[in-house]
Design brief:
By secondary structure, the protein is α+β, with helices and mostly antiparallel strands. The protein folds into 4 domains: about 50-60 and about 200-285, Beta Barrel (Elongation Factor Tu (Ef-tu), domain 3), CATH 2.40.30; about 70-90 and about 170-200, no CATH class; about 95-170; about 285-340, no CATH class. The protein is built from 4 helices and 22 strands. The strands form 6 sheets. Strands 2-17-21-20-19-18 form a 6-stranded antiparallel beta sheet, with no helix packed on it.
């Protein structure tokens, strides 16, 4: 009988211990599996800003003459696109042509003289071998032959120089560029280094912007997937793809802006400077506003409150509605990334 009583007591103790262990484990599991839907993370409120820029040529150059002469022909006018040969204007090449003709005649004379001296050298080499002519005479003829060969080499260099000068009487611009400004007319005298106009590469357009650090940071987050809006080209605004081209390393201390240039790669009905473009960016609200779910905000006597995870209440200033059933609020105690209860 005593043994039976002892077994009952032991079984009863074991049952009570099991019940206590089970209830403790269930409470622990309940804490670990708390649904995240009961909380939310505070997000910074964003503000849409629109920047306006105007297109310009990717490159612009001054058209300068490297030679002096009278202009005989201007091939392209303002707005015209340079053809494949790249010629913009032509200067008079009369004197260069005459110099080239004289050079070639002189080369022919020296070639004839070289041929004659070469025969004389071979003839005197045979005479010197037979000891019927002096070695000094052979040396003199050999020297004349060498000097004539040096002279023709110098004339060949001069011919190359004259040809180069002749080609530079054709004032050239990169093919495909457009004339922006023209300051020369046929019949005018052109001096060395004088400007004859300006040309630009409008095949690819550039749009410069001055951005604040926050705007520049928002631009970088786009990862070169930039879209520019052209509101004036069609009845409906035209959206065109663009990418980041250049970033100035300098910083303007007066405006506190960074100079950025975007390149337009999309198709446009016309490619010229002065087309108005708009760039939209999302930047954090400078007021420090944040976004919270509307269900998390409690209103008491015209005051608005949020509740932290630990139960502390935060008084906030209500600023208005936000996107996707959110409110824009502000408080010095709230920062983006804070965790609050989804329901007060």
């Amino acid at each position: 009988m005593k043994d039976r009583r002892r077994l009952k007591i032991i079984a009863l103790c074991l049952g009570i211990t099991g019940i206590l262990h089970t209830s403790h484990g269930a409470a622990a599991d309940n804490v670990q599996t708390q649904p995240m839907g009961d909380f939310f993370v505070v997000r910074a409120a964003m503000r849409q800003v629109s920047l306006t820029g105007y297109t310009r040529a990717r490159y612009v150059m001054d058209i300068v003459s490297e030679e002096a002469g009278r202009c005989v022909r201007v091939v392209a006018d303002v707005g015209d696109q340079i053809k494949k040969d790249g010629v913009f204007a032509v200067l008079d090449t009369t004197f260069i042509d005459l110099s080239l003709k004289k050079n070639r005649v002189e080369q022919e004379r020296l070639k004839s003289l070289i041929a004659y001296n070469a025969k004389e050298v071979r003839r005197y080499e045979e005479l010197v071998e037979r000891e019927t002519a002096a070695q000094s005479t052979l040396d003199s003829l050999q020297n004349k032959l060498d000097q004539a060969q040096f002279q023709i080499q110098a004339l060949q260099v001069q011919e190359a120089e004259l040809k180069e000068r002749q080609s530079r009487h054709h004032i050239r611009v990169p093919p495909g560029w457009s004339i922006i400004e023209r300051t020369v007319e046929p019949g005018e005298w052109v001096s060395v280094g004088s400007s004859l106009g300006k040309a630009g590469d409008f095949r690819t357009l550039i749009v410069p912007f001055s951005m604040s650090p926050a705007e520049y940071s928002a631009l970088k987050k786009l990862n070169n997937k930039v879209e520019l809006l052209f509101p004036d080209l069609n009845e409906k605004p035209l959206a065109v793809e663009a990418s980041l081209e250049r970033i100035s390393p300098a910083f303007d201390p007066e405006t506190r802006k960074i100079n950025v240039e975007l390149t337009i790669y999309g198709n446009l009905p016309e490619k010229r400077g002065g087309l108005r473009t708009e760039l939209s960016l999302e930047i954090p609200d400078p007021s420090g506003a944040v976004l919270v779910p509307s269900s998390a905000v409690a209103e008491r006597y015209e005051e608005f409150w949020l509740t932290r995870v630990n139960g502390d209440r935060v008084r906030v200033l209500f600023l208005g509605d936000g996107p996707d059933n959110t409110y824009r609020v502000r408080s010095p105690e709230l920062r983006p990334g804070d965790r609050l209860k989804a329901k007060p």
